[in-house]
Amino acid sequence: MAEEFSAQAQNQALGYLYQVRYALLLLMQTGLADPEAQISVEYLDDIAFEKSGSPFELIQTKHHINAKASLSNASTDLWRTLRVWSETFLQGKMQTENLTLTLITTELATPNSAPHKLRPRALGSRNVDEALTTLLAVAQSSTSQVNKAAYKAFLDLSLDQQRTLLAQIQVLDGSPDILHVQKEIENILRLSTREQFLHAVCRRLEGWWFDVVINHLSSKPYHAIAFTDLRVTLNDIQEQFYEESLPIDFPEPFEVAEKDAENDQRIFVEQLRLINARIKRIQKAISDFYRSSAQRSEWVRDGVLLTRELEQYETRLCDEWERRFESMREDFSATPTEEEMQKGGRDLFNDIEQATLTIRSRCRAEYIMRGSYHILADQMRVGWHTLYASRLHHLRQGKVKL
After folding, report:
1. Cα–Cα distance, 74 to 69 (Å, whole number)
2. 49: left (phi over 0), alpha (psi -120 to 50) or beta
3. For 311-328, what is each residue's pLDDT tens digit?
4. Which of 14, 75, 256, 354 is most exposed by smallest CB count within 10 Å?
5. Is residue 237 part of a domain?
């Protein structure tokens, strides 16, 4: 029982994700021919295309993990869809003129079945009258309790209404599943994206898309999603993969609670405590450390930055730090006081934070350099207090749990 429920929940979740991912693919495909295209999700239907505020295509999506020839005359997927459209038509909420009704399903239509005869005309098997005769026979004779409400909704239409409705329906069976939809998206991106960056660009585009759909579903009043927004976002993402540039995935600071900062015992935090840095600066440092660490990992994972290039960048940072560190020490008195060393360390830290040492010339996000310095400070390769190495040696040896 538990396994059955788990499988049902899994299929339902995949169905929602499939719907959202397929909407992105459809908007990309349609937008290439119609730059003014607009789409909605879970508003007028599973997916809908609009123009000037009026729908011109309503789409139902049905996802199954294993494609098989099971879209038959009595298929639940087919009749659930017919119920939705029949009830909408009967309530006068659907103007069928110039409106296309599309059922997208990963299942395969049984040969010579009604859904097979409702395929697009280009496939050569379309016959609305034969499909209508078949569906009427099923609705009038079937004893299925699952489809009972759908049969009633369809039979409540007049014969002319039934024929009009079916004339607007097209069944796209054997459609790609959720994994292959991603491949279709990548195929479109391949026209304007370097092959080595294809997956990384696609992943970032989908991340943006899912956020957009969530806002779309939550917003009041309702607003359709425009292809122009998709195009601008895609251009912005692709520009981050140009030569001398890198994608920025964490533009916003992370929230770090004051209590967490006070209890943090990592070496780079202790480095800041040595120079008596204020708690707010420590909170900012922890945020930069997290963001930079996560961003560097993303770059390496996506293959947009080689480990060797990252090592070369760290060498540059260490060299620049050493120059400024030695300059700080030259300004000290012969026997500097603790206050003098703390003040010098804060000045050095301030100076480093204002530096513009980019990993690539067009990658100018400040948190990359600032966070990288905290990573180096955590490794004791750089420091702010002139005696940081001796003062924190015990931490490096693991005597304090970090």
Report:
1. 13
2. beta
3. 999 999 999 999 999 999
4. 354
5. no
